[in-house]
Amino acid sequence: LIGLSSAAQVTLGRGEFGQYFSINMGFGIGVTLGMHAAGGISGAHLNAAITLTHCLLGSLSWKKFPFYVLGQFLGSFLAAATVFGIYYEALYDYTKGNFTVTGPNATAGIFSTYPAPYMSLTGGFLVEVIATMMLFLGILVIHDEKNNAALKGTQALLTGILVLGIGLSMGMTTGYSMNPSRDLPPRVFTAIAGWGVDVFTAGQGWWWIPLVAPPLGCLFGVLIHKLFIDLHNQPVLENENEKRQPGMEVS
Known about the structure:
Elements: H1 2-12, H2 20-42, H3 48-57, H4 65-86, H5 88-95, H6 121-142, H7 155-170, H8 180-195, H9 198-205, H10 209-228, H11 236-250
Helix pairs in contact: 1-2, 2-7, 3-4, 3-10, 4-8, 6-7, 6-10, 8-10
């Protein structure tokens, strides 16, 4: 809701009420608040690709998968509908009632991601894989208790900063979806709300990339974390004993 609203404000305000940085901040803050809201309830599963990866790794029951994804999709769809309601009059004024996916007054990009005109499907797919790989790798590092885990209570903030950093560094070409739950439900909403089937045909049929690339990126993130970090981690007790040893010797 906060992320899409920030995109709406920047687009419909014609740059007078924020810039690209504002959108990145909006999504970072939204992720932080979402993790605080749902962290203790469900582990804050906000991303279908990450939920799927946890199921594949055996750290989440497959029985929970459809309910988690349904919750993600429903929340995202309702967020898009809410933003549409909040900014309906601004949308109408900006477009004169002609909701388009491409062109100088295109507004579909407020709700879902679309590639830059110069991007190929192959290039866009690679960008989304790498961006999602960095997202999940960063999340694993932040929560890695055997390594240099974040201080308790700061994980949500750091994850929001991580999303901000990815947006600032990799968002130009594809909009850094990284999340099927963030992209598909608003796309379906826009198809219903007046943008039509163009939301599925634009960008050479881009719509399937944010569904397929993020799970693959998550798997690469797990692989990198396992090979280059987790296999070299020392047991938690051993680390704690080493940290305490100098103090004990002085005592």
